[in-house]
Amino acid sequence: MTLALPVKDTAQRIGEHFADAVTEVTDGAVIVKSEALFQVAEYLKTNPDFDLNYLTHITAVDYFDYFEIIYQLTSLNNNHSLLLKTRCYDRDKPVVPSVVGLWRGADFQEREIYDLMGISFKGHPNLKRIVMWDGFDGHPLRKDYL
Amino acid sequence: MTLKTEPFVLNVGPQHPSTHGVFRMRATLDGEVVVDIEPIFGYLHRGIEKLAEERTYTGVIPLTDRLDYLSSMANNLGYCLAVEKLAGIPVPERAQYIRVIMAELQRIASHLIAVGAFLNDCGAFMTPIVYMIREREKILDLFDMVCGQRLTYNYMRPGGVSQEIPDEFLPALDKFLKQMPGWIDEYDQLLKENEILLARSKGVGTLSQELAISISASGPVLRGSGIKWDIRRADPYSIYERFEFDIPTGTVGDCYDRYRVRVEEMRQSLRILEQARQQIPGGEFRSKVPHLIRPPVGETYAHIEAPKGELGFYLVSDNSIAPYRCHVRAPSLLNVTALRDLMIGWKIADLILIFGSMDICMGEIDR
To answer: Does B183 touch chain A (CB under 8 A)?
Structure first.
């Protein structure tokens, strides 16, 4: 079985390295500040205790008050996983850092979130629409679309 | 004397027999050699994730059929597991076995098309794929028997399957299990050591382990590169921990390894099918589930080893009858990330071959 890493301990370890990075610890996820996301992700990927080398998937959810961006990280060597989240409160110009520099697999997924949810990823090498055509108006997966 | 050449842009697809759907590649060529490539998709985007937000939990199942339309049973299973995890729905023993049988038959059917189409792209025009479609037809007949459909099955439900398997199903399955190993031997006899196939695919489009992990590759593409990672073993779902099977892996990660992994996986699927056939118990085919499922507020991620890789469903519930958010982790979308790296430096004819060896399905890339 792929073990889910204990979120409290993990949040504490992250807090030791990056003060104030963790904003909340929920049932199964660690929520970090979007400014610190890249550094935290890099730490989780490279630290041998975590070794979360595989980015299972990225997705985003629109909760009206904020967007939640979800990173499911897995370690192929240790067979454990962690749900890392970040929140974005700006509805007009939501921006979070891109993790393409850490996992190339983020490329198309971030483009898809940008296309359908309208969240920009700072540092993405080729951020443009992926399934809708250029010039399409709006972001269909937002809850207020339509 | 050196010949001056200029880069030339060639558009492959979206309507092209070798792009397996409406996939488009904008290839920049220097003579015959690929210097750059940009995958372009979205031609089959139907907004399945958005549509799912306005349907009941059971009403989403027909939409999942249309993700990877060559393995609808696997999509059904992945989605139903996610709903069951979210709402805490139990699944009877018999239903678990029926599901495993369907999922493994589906894996064989999908790999038959993958291997057949790959050999087609290799230049073994039409002969191998017609052999493989012959066998796939037998599997489609079995599916037709249980749910009356040949492509979009809509067979599984949260808590089990939609209907009991008919009496004639198990004898027909036995017959299939008896015949299929001989057919796989036949492919190996014809193709495994075939000189043209070896020349075309050995060492072509090599995907290194580091790159495979970095791009989040999964399924035969990941295992072809020599990484022993199979969700059925790494994170067993349903009742997979009860079965004995091996995980075939490649050594270098070239097109030939990916092709071999698929053929060996078919044999392993047959092993699982044999065991499931022996052990299948009697009993209910579906637990008591209310018509409208209202899972408690929360979110979940369930994943399975679909024929093309790790298929996951991320569901968010707000305690209504429809999912608040339904995200599909599509293996094909992540596997195509590697295309640019694999294709640069190879010739235009290899481009088609490398693409064929990835085995992608546009239905789940565009969603």
So the answer is: no
In B106-221, DSSP assigns E strands to: 156-157, 160-161
Read off the DSSP letter of residue B286.
B
ipTM: 0.90
Sole residue written with tokens 């059929």: B65
Residues from chain A that touch B37, judged by Cβ atoms under 8 A, are none
Could you list the pLDDT tens digit for every one of the 367 residues in chain B?
Answer: 677 778 889 888 788 777 777 888 899 988 888 999 988 888 889 989 999 998 999 999 999 999 888 899 999 999 999 999 999 899 999 999 999 999 999 999 999 999 988 888 887 778 888 888 988 999 999 999 998 888 889 999 998 899 889 999 999 999 999 999 998 898 888 887 888 888 888 888 888 999 999 999 999 999 999 899 999 988 898 899 899 999 999 899 898 999 999 999 999 999 999 999 999 888 888 888 888 889 999 899 999 999 999 999 999 999 899 999 999 999 999 999 888 888 888 888 888 889 888 888 888 888 8
Give the distance from residue B41's alpha carbon to the nearest chain A alpha carbon, in angstroms. Answer: 6
- Residue A10 has, within 13 A of its CA and on its CB side, a CA count of 29
Is residue B219 within 8 A of residue B308, CB to CB? The reply is: yes
Whether A37 and chain B come into contact, CB under 8 Å, resolves to no
A57 contacts on B by Cβ (under 8 Å):
216, 312, 314, 327, 329, 334
